[in-house]
Automatic annotation (TrEMBL):
Pfam families: PHP. Coiled coil: none annotated. This is Putative metal-dependent phosphoesterases (PHP family). It comes from the Bacteria. PANTHER family: EXONUCLEASE, POLYMERASE_HISTIDINOL PHOSPHATASE N-TERMINAL DOMAIN-CONTAINING PROTEIN. Transmembrane segments: none annotated. SUPFAM superfamilies: PHP domain-like. InterPro entries: PHP_dom, PHP_domain, Pol/His_phosphatase_N, Pol/histidinol_Pase-like. GO terms for molecular function: 5'-3' DNA exonuclease activity; 5'-3' RNA exonuclease activity. CDD domains: PHP_HisPPase_AMP. Residues 11-76 form the Polymerase/histidinol phosphatase N-terminal domain.
């Protein structure tokens, strides 16, 4: 089965707003998606659905179909992994409690990042990063923006290279739950658990196959096959993982901010044929 791409529907199931580490607020993001021809959108902020109600109101005005979404952090064999939840019940009490725990983890991590960067002597670093995040939990991109504003570094990229990237002082690991627990949260809320951007974990092919198999055994049902920044080789490899584990195929731009054409809303490379789209299995299926 060929996943429909052009002209309709245009489906983007991975993007971020100011509710986590995105640059646009929910209304701005929905408007940008509509301008770019997106017909079905899932906002997948990190460990929160705080932007969902505002996005839903904006999408209703613009005639864009909004799918409930979130991107949850977890751990698999000491690796931090992201699992996207789609089409869940956003009023499920147990799920909301789990998100509250994730939010607490994120605040703890933000405070540790600020402590690690204390030697830079940037006044009110945590408070300024929180303001950059619109009052929500600041992530590393928000700290990077403050460091640019404080003239510690010239650009955000330099902040990550020197201070916030992997292995640097501000690269603080949070105490995330295990992979199978997060998958269970999503399933119990009636959603579909999707293994996010598998090639971004920088694992060997063998280890990634192990991750995908464990994810499926834990109850995961889908994998992001087409995401931003992938080579054609990566696209083919992840498609084969989907076939191997009989996982549904998802896609998304992983949009965070304007000005990055490689991860623009709705700009998604067509997936290989022979894959079953995750949106055919939503409670209100798309394109069936």
């Amino acid at each position: 089965m060929t996943i429909p791409q052009d002209p309709k529907p245009c489906i983007d199931l991975h993007c971020h707003t100011t509710a986590s580490d995105g640059a646009l607020d929910p209304e701005q993001l929905v408007a940008r998606a509509a301008e770019r021809g997106v017909s079905h959108l899932a906002i997948t902020d990190h460990d929160t659905i705080d932007g969902l109600a505002r996005a839903r109101a904006a999408s209703a005005v613009l005639g864009l179909e909004l799918i409930n979404g979130v991107e949850l952090s977890c751990v698999w064999r000491s690796h931090t992994i992201h699992v996207v939840g789609l089409d869940f019940d956003h009023a499920n009490g147990d799920f909301l409690e789990a998100l509250a725990r994730q939010n607490d983890n994120r605040w703890q991590r933000a405070r540790l990042i600020a402590d690690k960067l204390h030697k830079l002597k940037v006044d009110n670093l945590l408070e300024r990063a929180t303001a950059m995040a619109g009052g929500d939990v600041p992530g590393r991109p928000h700290f990077a923006q403050v460091l640019v504003e404080a003239e510690v570094v010239p650009k955000v990229a330099h902040a990550f290279k020197r201070l916030l990237g992997a292995g640097k002082p501000g690269d603080v690991k949070a105490c995330w739950p295990e992979l199978d627990e997060v998958v269970q949260w999503i399933n119990a809320a009636g959603g579909i658990a999707v293994l996010a951007h598998p090639r971004k974990y920088r694992m060997t092919a063998t280890r990634l196959r192990d991750l995908t198999a464990d994810f499926r055994r834990a109850g995961g049902r889908a994998i992001e096959v087409s995401v931003s920044g992938q080579s054609s080789g990566d696209l083919g490899f992840v498609a084969e993982l989907a076939r191997r584990e009989q996982l549904l195929a998802s896609q998304g731009s992983d949009f965070h901010f304007p000005g990055a054409p490689w991860c623009e809303l709705g700009k998604i490379v067509k997936m290989p044929e022979g894959l079953e789209p995750v949106w055919h299995h939503f409670r209100q299926p798309v394109g069936v």
